[in-house]
Design brief:
The complex is a heterodimer of chains A (94) and B (257). Chain A is mostly helical. Chain A has 4 helices and no strands. Chain A is rod-shaped and about 70 Å long.
């Protein structure tokens, strides 16, 4: 185990962090759908606008939690990667 | 980049207990929680001095009354019965998480004696330990309130409904709802602070302010969502209100209006 393994693990972490954030971006589709429906119902029933808006915020934040999970995974991979630390430790011993 | 406030240790002590040695770390999470507890206690103590019921009320009384009546409406609307100790639990969760999330915009420096460096204040809800603690509080109060009301047999019957085949799925569902409750709050608050820290390097003049403004919005929404979901889980454990409870609640609603 030498510098190659460290580089490989680093490369893998960075690429998978990018993929994780990109996949998390798919949650935007769901949020867009929620916003679209909320706008349509607000336009057809302006009296209910306040209630629709507050429910929409809650629903959006719940949809967003999947995106937050992938963001969290990406941040752990980038800033406090347990596998990377282990590999660096092993490489230092060699 | 530090994404775990537990790693900022102010003071450490080894404690021997039951023959084993434990390390007690006074870290940013604990210090921040104490600071917020102190702020909330002192704030509420001074806000509730000189309460009046006239037409002209103190602005602090107005703030607290708005908050409590809003929370009471939400809790009673979901419970469909009169608010009890559940209201106190949910309202405390809401107020603590709200104050904690909003306190993230204050750039408070802390001196760390163990390393001789300065550390920036991270709100306690941006620490996984705090959110897991709050989640355990909620997830343990679900069976507690359910068993207190319905008895052990009726409460655990909901795990084998609609069929006993669903038992493992119901148990997995319980764990995953708890995990998502904790991770959602932690991820939102922590990502807010980390994004501001990254933007300070990339575009230090304007963008961090915009993201912090956005952080205020998500902070309030996350506090609302955490307390609403806690309430929904507790109501799921309690079951439907009896006719008597519902009538009592409706009568009290008519009295108030």
């Amino acid at each position: 185990m030498g510098i190659d393994a460290v580089a490989l693990v680093g490369l893998g972490s960075v690429i998978s962090a990018g993929i994780a954030v990109g996949m998390g971006g798919l949650a935007a589709l769901g949020e867009g759908k929620a916003a679209q429906q909320a706008l349509a119902s607000m336009a057809s029933q302006p009296d209910m606008a306040n209630e629709v808006r507050s429910t929409m915020f809650v629903a959006m934040a719940m949809v967003e939690s999947t995106a937050i999970y992938s963001l969290l995974v990406a941040m752990i991979l980038l800033f406090s990667n347990p596998i990377f630390n282990k590999v660096v430790e092993l490489a230092a011993q060699m | 980049m530090n994404i775990n406030p537990d790693q900022i240790v102010f003071w450490t002590k080894k404690v021997a207990l039951f023959g084993t040695e434990f390390t007690f770390n006074l870290n940013m999470t604990i210090v921040g929680t104490w600071l917020l507890m102190f702020l909330i206690f002192v704030g509420v103590h001074f806000a509730t001095r000189g309460l009046t019921d006239g037409l002209k009320i103190n602005r602090w009384q107005n703030l607290l009354e708005t908050m409590v009546s809003f929370l009471k409406n939400e809790v009673e609307g979901t419970l469909q019965r009169k608010a009890t100790v559940i209201f106190s639990l949910v309202a405390s969760l809401f107020i603590f998480i709200l104050v904690s999330n909003l306190s993230g915009v204050i750039p408070l420096p802390f001196y760390v004696p163990s390393t001789g460096e300065w550390a920036v204040y991270i709100p306690p809800t941006g620490s996984f330990s705090t959110t897991v603690g709050l989640m355990l509080l909620v997830m343990l109060s679900v069976p507690l309130f359910g068993i207190m009301r319905n008895g052990v047999g009726t409460y655990f019957k909901r795990y084998v409904e609609p069929q006993w085949i669903m038992l493992p799925f119901n148990i997995i569902g319980e764990f995953s709802s708890g995990a998502s409750l904790a991770i959602r709050l932690y991820g939102n608050v922590m990502s807010g602070t980390v994004i501001v820290a990254i933007l300070l390097i990339l575009a230090p003049i304007f963008m961090p302010v915009v993201m912090q403004l956005f952080g205020l919005l998500t902070g309030v929404i996350q506090a609302y969502i955490f307390s609403t979901l806690a309430l929904v889980y507790i109501v799921g454990g309690l079951g439907d209100p009896t006719l008597k409870e519902k009538q009592e609640w409706e009568a009290s609603q008519e009295d108030a209006s």
